[in-house]
Design goal:
The protein has 806 residues and is an alpha/beta fold. It is 37% helix and 17% strand.
Length: 806
């Protein structure tokens, strides 16, 4: 009984191991149709598979003659891989024999050519994996650098490998970001339970990865040995790369008894991600290190990882070549140096060995924080190049700072958290010191320094000796979930005063190929980075995305002042209009008891309250062509002094349809019109269908004669879509929004009319059921007599108010 029980426990642990290894490569271990894995007891529901293995009876040892599992295509249900697992690592040869000669060969006889995967070991102990492919004549091991791979291929690799004529050599790929985030969360939990401070966690993960790679997994996992073994192997890696001064900067506390126990699981997690079996040649470990570090510790040491695709984008914009010297005066963990190294290899068509030899003197980085400098060197070691010019030192004070030596600077200086921190402007000035004349600087900066007035003098000083080449706004969520700061790429050429007629490239990256999903950035279609790079290199303009324009001192460095607005497509207009209508309906539901009893003057057209509209000189199918644009009411400037009442007041709020509240105020404006916050929630436009007052931190778009009512919603959607142009003191003004083009297609207007009609029915029902107000009965009777379709013509408010007044 004990033997049988022990054997069953081992089998369960082997199943856990298989699930871990599959998940690490992005497979879905559920059974079809939701997943891609069938286990032994699930074959009965798929007779076309169980029939393949039925005739095979040569299984070694106990078992029912079926493979442990089969990976299948969830659409065709054809086998992609057959898997045989053993609970004891020494039984790997048995697993290989059964996976290939029994189950794999059975599939070949049935007309399929799946991979044959042998697995031995359990989720908590040593394990081994071997993968074989059928080449049309025999089973051949899948290899990496001529050695059998020790991981299960991901789906894309497996699909390629099952073609008999495909090469058996496989390069490793980084697991999906969701998998890395999940593993990082588990490691964070283990470190937290071990009472490890946030700031120390990235160093522990890096030390463990480096130690596992250096020792090829030869680390004792017993609590009394594991931490000391990690320190010894990590130190050996630094000494071997000529960085002995950093060997003590990544150290695991051997006195932490709780960590000694938890570290076994951390090591197992990293082993499952192939840290121990791979070389640095093809950059897998470096990518894994960088991506994994992003989810392990975040900003705990004051460092934000620049996403590798953005660092590569900047290296491409600067056209880094194999002979260039590249400098990063605030190198952090080395992402920009790695991007430069990768581009040198690609452009020069160099082998990894040639790259290592070449860049030892061509990649220069400084970081004053010892642990961060050590993390950078570890990053380089895992790519086979730990001897590069990465220095632990302050780039402002070190004696060997390379004045006038570099051809290119790539950097993301630390963003200041308090007044005592070094501002990014000083890092940029210091970076320029390190460049040769005509050298290129590309740096990530907070958008605030592009437009804030207190940075005017610094921006102008830059252009006295340097040329502004490009300003590219990056996605708002680029550094989330660890930072919400809005950023841009600033590109300068050193040593040439900015010519007055020089055209600068301004761009906005709305889509960098990733989106946020549950706190993790995952891939999406529509990546604009290649498009923007091509436009920069070929001097192209793309409305709404990028423009070449001469620098205007009054506009500063803000791309929003230069990029031509685009006409929104139907999907974009639909999404914007529906969002506005939902906002309006939610406002009606929230304030029904107040709206249904409004018994105020209908308000006056706003132009009667003004001498004349501000001149915009805009005509045609634009905001200025369809609307007069005013500022709000100065009488509401000090809105904090308002007394509670029954008049609706609209402010710069981006929620509740802009509602500030209900107050005692008589000078109401006749609807309908659009309100656009010029400060606060800048450009978060709303359509107002009720008599209201509007504070002077908003713009008011009053429709001109013959402007269709539907155009108010289209215009508000367009303003919202262009809201990215306004931030950090760059307000929305009449002249800045008047030229936005409006789509005026008749079918679009008809569709918006239909949306408004549907919303009107919902809102009328809401108002008719406002039971908790004194005039509810009268209001409901009045509303019931109104033709609901009239809302779309914009005169329902007039009829409603007329009925109430009567």
């Amino acid at each position: 009984m004990t033997t049988r029980f022990t054997g069953r426990v081992a089998e369960v642990r082997a199943e856990h191991l298989l699930t871990e290894l599959l998940t690490a490569q992005g497979w879905d271990p559920r059974r079809p149709p939701n997943g891609e894995l069938l286990r032994q007891h699930e074959y009965k529901d798929h007779p076309h598979l169980s029939g393949i293995f039925k005739a095979k009876s040569g299984k070694i040892g106990a078992g029912d003659g079926l493979p442990e599992a089969v990976l299948i295509d969830r659409e065709t249900l054809q086998p992609i891989a057959v898997i045989e697992a053993k609970a004891i690592v020494t039984d790997l040869p048995k697993a290989v024999h059964e996976a290939t000669e029994l189950y794999g060969s059975a599939c070949i006889a049935a007309g399929f050519t799946p991979l044959a995967i042998a697995l031995a070991g359990t989720s908590e102990d040593e394990f081994a994996v071997r993968v074989f492919k059928w080449n049309g004549e025999k089973w051949r091991p899948v290899t990496y650098d001529d050695n059998p791979i020790g991981w299960i291929p991901n789906r894309a690799d497996a699909i390629r490998l099952i073609v008999p004529t495909a090469p058996a050599e496989l390069r490793p790929s980084v697991p999906p970001p969701e998998v890395l985030a999940e593993r990082a969360n588990e490691i964070n939990r283990l470190l937290r339970e071990s009472k490890v401070l946030d700031a120390l966690r990235p160093g522990i993960v890096a030390a463990t990865m480096l130690a596992l790679w250096q020792s090829k997994g030869n680390i004792r996992k017993e609590p009394g040995c594991i931490l000391a073994d990690i320190n010894a192997a990590c130190s050996q890696a630094f000494w071997g790369s000529g960085k002995a001064d950093l060997a003590k900067s990544l150290v695991v506390d051997v006195a932490n008894a709780e960590l000694a126990v938890k570290m076994r699981r951390i090591v197992v997690i990293l082993e499952r991600l192939n840290v121990t079996v791979l070389t640095a040649e093809h950059d897998y470990l470096g990518q894994l290190y960088e991506t994994f570090f992003r989810y392990t510790g975040g900003n705990t040491i004051g460092q934000f990882f620049t996403p590798r695709h953005v660092a590569a984008f900047m290296a491409d914009l600067c056209q880094v070549g194999p002979d260039d010297v590249v400098l990063d005066p605030a190198c952090g963990t080395g992402g920009f140096l790695i991007s430069a190294m990768n581009r040198m290899q690609r452009i020069g068509k160099l082998s990894r060995t040639q790259v290592v030899d070449r860049v030892q003197k061509q990649l220069i980085g400084f970081d004053s924080e010892p642990q961060t400098a050590a993390l950078c060197v570890a990053n380089m070691i895992l790519r086979g190049d730990g001897t590069t010019g990465v220095h632990r030192g302050n780039s402002f004070t070190v004696v060997d700072y390379p004045i006038g030596s570099a051809h290119v600077v790539l950097m993301n200086p630390p963003f200041p958290h308090k007044k005592t921190d070094v501002p990014p402007e000083k890092f940029i000035n210091r970076a320029l010191d390190g460049l040769q004349r005509r050298g290129m600087l590309a740096t990530i900066v907070p958008q605030s320094i592009l437009v804030k007035r207190d940075k005017n003098k610094w921006r102008e000083s830059l252009l006295i000796k340097n040329t502004l080449e490009a300003v590219i706004v990056l996605p708002d969520e680029l550094f989330q979930p660890y930072a919400s700061v809005n950023t841009a790429v600033l590109i300068l050429r050193k040593g040439i005063a900015h010519p007055s007629n020089h055209e600068v490239f301004f761009a906005r990256v709305e889509n960098d190929g990733f989106r946020m999903k549950k706190g993790v950035r995952v891939e999406q279609e529509g990546n604009l980075l290649p498009v923007i790079e091509a436009a920069f290199l070929n001097h192209h303009n793309i409305p709404g995305i990028c423009s070449w324009a001469q620098y205007n001192i009054n506009a500063g460095f803000a791309p929003g002042a230069y990029i031509q607005a685009r006409i929104l497509d139907e999907i974009q207009v639909d999404d914007g209009v529906l969002a506005l209508i939902r906002s309006r309906t939610a406002f009606v539901a929230h304030h029904a008891h107040q709206l249904v009893t409004l018994n105020e003057e209908r308000g006056e057209p706003y132009w009667k309250k003004r001498q004349k509209p501000p001149p915009t000189f805009i005509t045609g199918q634009t905001i200025g062509g369809y609307f007069e644009i005013f500022y709000g009411q100065k009488a509401l400037h000090n809105k904090e002094e308002l007394l509670t009442g029954t008049s609706l007041i609209i402010s710069s709020s981006g929620i509740d349809n802009g509602c500030y509240g209900f107050f005692d105020f008589d000078a109401l404006i006749q609807p309908p019109f659009v309100t656009v916050p010029s400060t606060g929630s800048i450009a978060e436009a709303h359509v107002q269908e009720w008599p209201c007052g509007v504070t002077d931190d908003c713009l008011i778009l009053v429709p001109k004669k013959d402007t269709p009512h539907e155009m108010l919603y289209i215009a508000a959607a367009v303003v919202r879509s262009e809201g990215w142009r306004f931030s950090y003191g760059r307000k929305a003004t009449p002249s800045r929004i008047a030229g936005f083009p409006l789509p005026t297609d008749a079918s679009l207007i008809a569709r918006v009319r239909r949306y408004l009609d549907q919303a009107a029915q919902v809102e009328l029902t809401i108002l008719a059921n406002a039971e908790d107000v004194i005039d509810a009965r009268i209001a409901k009777q009045a509303l019931a007599e109104i033709d609901k379709s009239e809302l779309v013509r914009g005169d329902i408010l007039n009829k409603k108010l007329a009925l109430w007044e009567s």
